[in-house]
Each structure stands twice: as C-alpha cells, then as structure tokens.
Specification:
Layout lengths: L4 E9 L8 E5 L4 E6 L14 H15 L7 E6 L2 E7 L21 H10 L9 E4 L2 E4 L26 H14 L2 H7 L4 H17 L18
Parallel strand pairs: 1-4
Antiparallel strand pairs: 1-2, 2-3, 3-5, 4-5, 6-7
Helix pairs in contact: 3-5
Length: about 220
C-alpha cells in the first residue's frame, strides 16, 4: 500500500485496552482495528508514539517469513490521526484457547518464533485469536526493543527443536533484512532495533531451539490473558 489507508468511520471502542483501540471502517466498508498514535499512553521503556509502527513492522516480518499468522496491518489515517490499522478478525468466543497449551498446539510455533526474534514483551493468551482452524497474533506493539524483554505465555515450547520448515524460513529471512525488507522495517523501527532483530534471528538459527525463560527478570506478561 503506497499511501496510508483512509479510515472514514468509527464503529466502536475496545474496552480494557492499555491504549486507545477503535474498530473503524474504510471507504469500502471493511473493518479494521485502528490504533492511532494520539491514543498511545507513554511508556518508560518504549519511545513515545512508536507502538503503532511496531505493529506494522511485526506484520512485515510475518509476511517476509511466510507464516501468515498476523492479520494485514498497514499505516492508516483516520479520525484520530495517523496510526496502524489491522484487518479485523472474527473471534470464536466459544473456544477456550487455554486448551491448546497442554500439550502445546503446533500452530503456536510461528507465533512463538516471531515473538522471540521480535522480542515481544507482551504475548498474553488473549493476544492470540482462534478463528476456525487458524490462530492469529494480535496486539503486537510491544516489540523490537533492543534490550531483552521477551514475556510470553508460550514458554511450554522452551527447549523444543524448531520444526525444519520454520528454521528454513529464518535462514531465508537474514538476507531480506539487508534488502528491501530491511528498508521497510527501518521506516517503522530504528537501527538499534534492526541490529537486535538480526542478532536474535542469527542466534535462533544457530541454537535451533526455542529459548528457555530468563531467570533474572519476569518472563510472563500480566495479566496472562
């Protein structure tokens, strides 16, 4: 998308969110989850007004890897100003995703890998939507920090060998970070974040296993859901 998506209407507001999150529509009537920079709360450890760009960067990373677990997320201009717009996904409210944790569902792997290399500081279980047979990773703004901040409910994969096809995708990602993908990401995140992303990707390729939870800091998000 060469130009920001134009959001023309607000359908509603999501409750119980840290930052202003709106359900909006574009000119064609399609629904998007809209997060404007003006609605972001300041955080001590992330640059002010940067979370919506990190949402887009996370989607670009998912697309480059070919995982397809992040709904389309683009730059948007709406009633609250510039921000991100993520394609709305209908959630199966009757399904309890906790049933997928033990034993761990294989469909968690692409989300877990993305979270490791993008350093997701907030992978709650509620940030994974179940839609039919698909799992979707949403709320991906607390990502790409240069310092280690991985907090996730997916530690049940710790120490497990990364499936071969996902490992191959990581290997294919590295040259892309030096090419067009890298240029796209640099429009959304800084050079320190890019360097850390490349380093984490190389380490994950080298070890070939999901990392263990850290012992020197909190490893879980709160609340868990």
């Amino acid at each position: 998308m060469d130009h920001p998506l134009s959001l023309t209407g607000i359908v509603g507001r999501y409750a119980d969110t840290s930052n202003l999150t709106l359900l909006a529509t574009d000119e064609a009537g399609s629904q998007w989850v809209y997060k404007a920079e003006s609605g972001e709360r300041p955080l001590w450890d992330f640059p002010r007004g940067s979370l919506w760009r990190r949402e887009i960067a996370f989607y670009l990373l998912d697309r480059a890897l070919g995982f397809g677990v992040v709904p389309e997320t683009v730059e948007a201009n709406g009633p609250m100003g510039m921000g991100s717009a993520q394609q709305h996904v209908s959630m199966d409210n009757a399904f309890d995703p906790r049933t997928l944790l033990d034993p761990p569902d294989e469909r968690f792997w692409p989300i877990a890998i993305l979270d490791v290399i993008a350093n997701n500081a907030d992978r709650k279980l509620g940030h994974v939507l179940v839609d039919g047979g698909s799992l979707w990773a949403i709320d991906n703004g607390l990502t790409f920090h240069p310092e280690e901040k991985l907090r996730t409910v997916l530690w049940m994969l710790a120490g497990e060998e990364i499936p071969h096809h996902y490992h191959s995708a990581l290997q294919d990602l590295l040259p892309q970070l030096e090419d067009d993908l890298g240029a796209q990401l640099l429009e959304m995140i800084g050079q320190p974040e890019m360097g850390a992303l490349a380093s984490r990707t190389k380490l994950l390729i080298e070890t070939g296993v999901h990392p263990e939870p850290p012992q020197d800091r909190h490893a879980l998000p709160w609340p868990l859901y």
